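User: Predict the full complex structure for these chains.
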Amino acid sequence: MTWRTAKIVGLRDETATARTLTLAIDDWPGHVAGQHVDVRLTAADGYSAVRSYSIASAPSSDGRIELTVERLPNGEVSPYLTQQIMVGDQLEVRGPIGRWFVWDPERAGPIQLVAGGSGIVPLMAMIRWRASASSTASLRLLYSVREPSAIFYHEELRALSSRGNSVDVTYAYTRVAPRDWPRPAGRIDAELISRATWPADLRSSVYVCGPTSFVEHTTELLIAAGQDRQKIKTERFGATGERK
Amino acid sequence: MVIISRGFAGRRSGAETKLPPGQYLATDFPVLSAGPTPHIDLDRWEFTIDDGRNILKRWDWKAFRELPTENIVADLHCVTRWSKLGTSWEGVSLDVLLANVKTDLPYAMFRSHGDYMTNLPLKDVMNNQAWIAFKYDGGDLAPEHGGPARLLVPHLYLWKSAKWVRALRLMSEDRPGFWESLGYHIYGDPWKEQRYSEE
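Assistant: Here is the predicted structure of the two-chain assembly.
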């Protein structure tokens, strides 16, 4: 798998700590939703650092991908990508990587997505691909965030959930809920799982992505609610978090 | 041509000199699994060795825990690029488990609860290189880290150290396991950076 030169052609803040980078990549072979790339940064003296980031964008033929990077307080790479990098700068990319935690529109049947924090990123690629491919697969997203200002892609999700053949989005707030929100702030629980996810007898494909403790907790609840563990795919990241 | 990322300085710590190429030091213990964590009742736990036709060895938890154990200090290298140095484990050496197994089959497929499997040359799990570990850092191995017992093969990328391990099947030829069928390297030596099947 070869390293390819990528140029930053767009930057967009998602939250106070997360930023979407649009990369134009030489000879990009294309990807499917859920995959990630390795990103290599090289300093002037030749020192380099590599991290993996999930692709947020749907596949397209224009040689571009989008990555959304969450800044980690003591990160080596994420502060550079979220604060320093500018349009026109170059880095290197290798990929796409991963053939397990993936979805494509050929796959029939309902989809259940469960995201914790920046775990939304690979799931957003699925949501976007479903929309751009005009897939009619029923899709529900349960998206857990600390507080309203931590939501990625908020406007886009709002737009997608208000049109025909829509995406059904339920937010869960762990620390601060919006005023008038029907459910107090707190972790996802069995009641929310039963209300906001597909019934088990639909045998939906389930994708869960987020921090390890979030994935452990929510997959336990999904299995307790009757979901088939064979239909649940997970992607976890630890406190170092730089996989995503 | 080297592509320089303008203004990127990076962070060089002395520890990096002990790391395989492309790895960085983690201080926590991240988890990578393809699906839900199974919870395995010790009353139903077993570990078997077979040759594809016959079960050659079988241990239940009680018999397994009566085998001699070793304390292991190992550096872990995950293909997702984190490394953790000097981790301490307790487990039963594969040398003990394979002691009375007469075979000329050169490959092994380790199988786990939850249908995970990973392949290894048999010589890579012999001669003090691999263990079935059941304690981490002095305590029982947590389910999300592979408890009650997992394979530990620290000289290869950590996906080879199958969590929730339940069986070793001897094979005449090498066959890909789970991640090895999904684009990851058939062998996985971190010092040669054998991450993906294309390299």
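Chain B touches chain A at residues 2-12, 22, 24, 26-38, 80-82, 114-115, 144, 179, 182-183, 196, 198-199 (CB under 8 Å).
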